[in-house]
Design brief:
about 300 residues; single chain; seven-stranded mixed sheet; 11 helices; Rossmann fold; alpha/beta
């Protein structure tokens, strides 16, 4: 089965575009472009320019303006916002004793290869399908990006009921050390039952005081009450063969997390995300304002 995710490539593209085209940034992924081929970057750019009227039927402007509109309004808000949220939260908990960072479905996440000084004592584990992990490592090698010694690849298939065994068998993983787990872009593509099981298993392999962070679609996502951008995103993911399956109310999410041994520390709504993470960028770029994505919330929880 083809494992190269188009949504993961588009996410990397959106982070690269934002970093290259703005002085004040919501999130600066300075190496994202390096892990994309030139053809991939150009093809995604072309597809988005040509498809601008799918996202905005009344758009009028140049191709360059079309690309900027699609990236700022449709592609970037979630990848930028959730990365900024996650890495800020990670920096905070490292100071409280977290020593392991588990990146679920790591895809083309680049934290490990631009890690700041405060991350040097972390052991970083990228969990992903073997084909995806190997593709990423080949891209890093081609781009001459060094893989730091504290980075480990846990090649595993989350559809396997015992996926956690791959991680548990790794000599550098310590189930007794507090961990920070990011599960970004995952909840959309799992059934509620599968998501609950992932929470259960995660809760069973990390100790008290560990944190998890993830983004999730709220209960209005797949209804007529959803925002226009959310509806377009659902359609675009389906067209890429990556159908979105579930959505959650706060109460439903709290029940799942409590059952897995987690307590919700924080859930941010789109309005709160925009205010906390996009304000400086928007002040500097009033002609290209970005707002957090409709119906997408961020959650931070701690292992009880």
């Amino acid at each position: 089965m083809e494992q190269k995710s188009m949504t993961a490539l588009v996410s990397a593209f959106s982070r690269a575009y934002h970093s290259e085209n703005n002085e004040v940034k919501i999130f600066d992924d300075r190496i994202a472009k390096s892990i994309l081929t030139g053809d991939e970057y150009n093809q995604i750019s072309s597809n988005m320019m040509q498809g601008v009227r799918f996202f905005n039927s009344s758009f009028v402007g140049t191709e360059k303006e079309a690309l900027r509109w699609v990236v700022d309004n449709q592609l970037s808000p979630t990848p930028l916002g959730r990365a900024a949220y996650t890495e800020r939260a990670l920096e905070t908990v490292v100071r409280t004793g977290v020593r392991q960072y588990l990146i679920f479905a790591a895809g083309y996440d680049t934290f490990a290869y631009r890690q700041p000084g405060w991350a040097r004592d972390l052991q970083i584990f990228e969990l992903d399908h073997p084909a995806t992990a190997r593709d990423k490592q080949a891209r890093l090698e081609k781009a001459a990006i060094e893989i730091p010694g504290n980075v480990h690849y846990a090649e595993t298939d989350f559809t396997d009921e015992a996926w956690q065994n791959t991680l548990l068998r790794m000599p550098d993983f310590d189930a007794g050390k507090m961990s920070f787990c990011s599960l970004l872009g995952i909840s959309y593509y799992l059934s509620e039952q599968a998501f609950a099981r992932m929470m259960d298993v995660t809760g069973s392999i990390v100790p008290k005081g560990s944190r998890i962070v993830f983004d999730y679609p709220d209960e209005k996502t797949y209804t007529d009450q959803a925002g226009g951008r959310a509806k377009k995103q659902v359609a675009m993911a389906g067209a890429a063969g990556e159908k979105m399956l579930a959505n959650y109310s706060y109460d439903a999410l709290e029940k799942i997390l409590n059952g897995a041994g987690f307590f919700i520390c924080e859930c941010l709504t789109p309005e709160e995300i925009t205010r906390q993470y996009f304000k400086s960028y928007n002040i500097a770029n009033p002609e290209h304002e970005i707002t957090a994505f409709d119906n997408v919330n961020y959650c931070l929880a701690i292992r009880k």
